[in-house]
């Protein structure tokens, strides 16, 4: 169904990544080796008991002021405030098989939250005529989020979905005193063998998404979708693991995180004549969000790639969180918040300003972190 266009012709398909760090070929365990393994296992068991990173438990869940956490939210990788309402929507990435996820609504005043059950019975809108139907609610996995506000106070929510299909799911959002209600209105299915990470809305009604790894390349890219026009690749966006993405308010530039090189890129869009620019951060940037003053907030991980891989995915021993403020005029960056993992929170991914606080989501934790702006290394607003 896609008319994806890529520059440079067809490339040889990269070999599949190994499914494990370890193999059993030719392994011979000696008595000394066995003792070493047992010692390592005992040490790791003690470490795990003392530091069950990001499980949404601990003293921060009991605090009501200062740096604390809202616990019990499963993998709120991305989050958005719904206009000037009292509600924040977070994704739920589900379990390790990208299933049993969805959305949560968090009330700003008292930090109470509840799961949102989207209405899925409506047929897809004409804009999404190629959509095969509503997602399976048991498989839905909400990853990156984007919001398109409308003049009447309603919104359109876009969510990267990995559960059951690789797609951007689209919802109409209405907010009441009880919280936001989501009504599914369509989807945009990704090209075959493509997995998206983040999504952003374009002024023309289209979308842009980041693809961390193209199936035919070791690099990632940004894809653009327009209603009735399918997917095309945005030139100048082939980076090493494209991650978070934002569109400038005037729609002429993209901001794209390159995770592996700890860099945020500004890329011209749609024939804009401004040259591309980049800024290097002191950590690997995951998501991007605008602050109320128009600056960009990049959130990510101040650890080595090896630690991110082992402690973020394989062992669950926790990775740190860092947030930088980027001035869009000068593209200068400064880290405003940094901390290590603990039993409550690990691996921050997305930060938004809510009143006089910074709310931070995570791709592994059962919690979101709340930081008073007064606790930052330098003023944000």
TrEMBL record:
Pfam families: SGL. It comes from the Bacteria. The chain crosses the membrane at residues 29-48. Residues 193-297 form the SMP-30/Gluconolactonase/LRE-like region domain. SUPFAM superfamilies: Calcium-dependent phosphotriesterase. Keywords: Membrane, Transmembrane, Transmembrane helix. This is SMP-30/gluconolaconase/LRE-like protein. It comes from Archangium gephyra.
